[in-house]
Amino acid sequence: MTAADINIECEPSRRPPSGIGIVHLGLGAFHRAHQAVYLQRHLDRTGADDWGICSANIRANRTLVDQLRDGDCRYHVAEFSDSEHVTLREVTALREALYAGPDGPDREALLARMSDPAVHIVTLTVTEKGYFLSPASGELLTDAPAIAHDIAHPESPDTAPGMLLEALARRRSAGVPPFTVLCCDNMPHNGRRTRRAVVSLARHRDGELAEWIDASVAFPSSMVDRIVPAMTDADRTRLAGLGIDDPAAVVCETFSQWVVEDDFPLGRPDWEADGVEMVADVAPFETMKLRLLNGAHSLLAYLGALAGIETVDAAVARPAFRGLLRHYWQQEAIPTLSLPAESDVAAYTDSLLARFANDSLRHRLQQIAMDGSQKLPQRWLAGGVERMTAGDEISATALGVAGWIRYTAGTDLNGQPHPVDDPMAETFATLHRRHGDDPAALTDAFLALDAVFPVAMRDDRLFSRQILAALARLENDGVESAIAALTLN
Ligand code: NAI
Ligand code: CS2
């Protein structure tokens, strides 16, 4: 890569005073490469200082908070269009970084910041599991230890719903209007789900408070899209070679999209001028993205990992995997979408394959495979039930489920171990111990997980037979033969 291929969009000198109008929960890679970049665009365009961000972690990632504090909350984003072209951007939109975990010093500082009348918006990227909602039913998991803690100690919460609830309670007591809650996690109707988590938790505290929140607080939904892999040492070495020695830097693709329901009673940045699409209803955008992009990602994650493949680009370099994605899109996912007539879904899926093929991202399948119990309901299963109910077979989804079940055993098809990073990992391990030598019983036991699978899927004998047959093909013939058998049907 020559200097000519590197586009520097840093403005290290200009930094307006520290106006904080937004608090973010979940200071991770995606927040730094997505929401904060849009706020940086706003800052660069307007110089306005009232939409600076206080970003916080309430569990894990304390080191990152310290690193950002040491660097005046500045960091770099390296946007790779391919392995030869990168745009380096310095982000100064973060004004404060806090660690408010149970073992951290900043819980009260975070709650005070969230209660500040100048804060008008709270955004979140705490992962799908951070809301403590059943993936299948959407009910609050009140038996989760962290939620039980927040019910018992509402003034010193550990969870994202608990933080939102305590801050809203303080604002209500002080006569301060509530902030808008904008979820930026990969969930369908993510605003409604966040509302449900907070109001359900509030009902365990004070019924009137719960009603006030339900009536007074805006929880718009948003669809977010930018591929932001977890940073690796190889990434840091690569950035150092470009002159970026920044422990808080992130790497991502150039593509970025943010579609937001326009419901901000206390106001918002004029995001339209910064490339954000403000809409009345985000549902069509999010369903398409969750089922086409994320559904494909999860197929690659489990089946690619079983085949010993490490990254997304390496998987789509194989014709069998590209054929699987096209089969899944055309036969099973696209028919479930209600798209405007002018939509060019073929161009969209072509663009997904091009994005997945970006070998400069080195997007690890293991990262995508994480938290499958929280992801698969919206990525495969909701659409799958629709197709099943319509009498259509979903053999690609069945192959994906078989791949996921096999993946949760903790080894690939060559016996190489991998971590099973999922809130339900212990449950999966128990099912494999109990039924590992009986694939039919194992399949039924997984389908009986009502936190993950809809009842219609559990009871559908064709679907369970398809999963069983796919499991056998995976073990006996390998992944690419199992895919070939699928597309030959
Ligand atoms: P990350 O691992 O870098 O950051 C996740 C953050 O969530 C961490 O700061 C962690 O402290 C926090 N967290 C994890 N579990 C939590 C819990 N139970 N309660 C509270 N906080 C918790 O991951 P990254 O890449 O930032 O992704 C985060 C979320 O952003 C994803 O789960 C997804 O919903 C969304 N997203 C990610 C994209 C990506 O390509 N990385 C793209 C689109 C959406
Ligand atoms: C990925 C997503 O890790 C995963 O589950 O499928 O983070 C994906 O990179 C983003 O949704 C892309 O916008």
Automatic annotation (TrEMBL):
Keyword line: NAD, Oxidoreductase
Q: Which domain of life, per UniProt?
A: Bacteria
Q: Which GO terms describe its molecular function?
A: oxidoreductase activity
Q: What is an example of a Pfam family matching this protein? A: Mannitol_dh_C
Q: Which SUPFAM superfamilies match?
A: 6-phosphogluconate dehydrogenase C-terminal domain-like, NAD(P)-binding Rossmann-fold domains
**Is the keyword RNA-binding in the record?**
no
What residues does the Mannitol dehydrogenase C-terminal domain cover? 281-473
What are the Mannitol dehydrogenase N-terminal domain coordinates in residue numbering?
21-272
Known EC number(s)? 1.1.1.-
Name of the protein described by the UniProt record: Mannitol dehydrogenase family protein
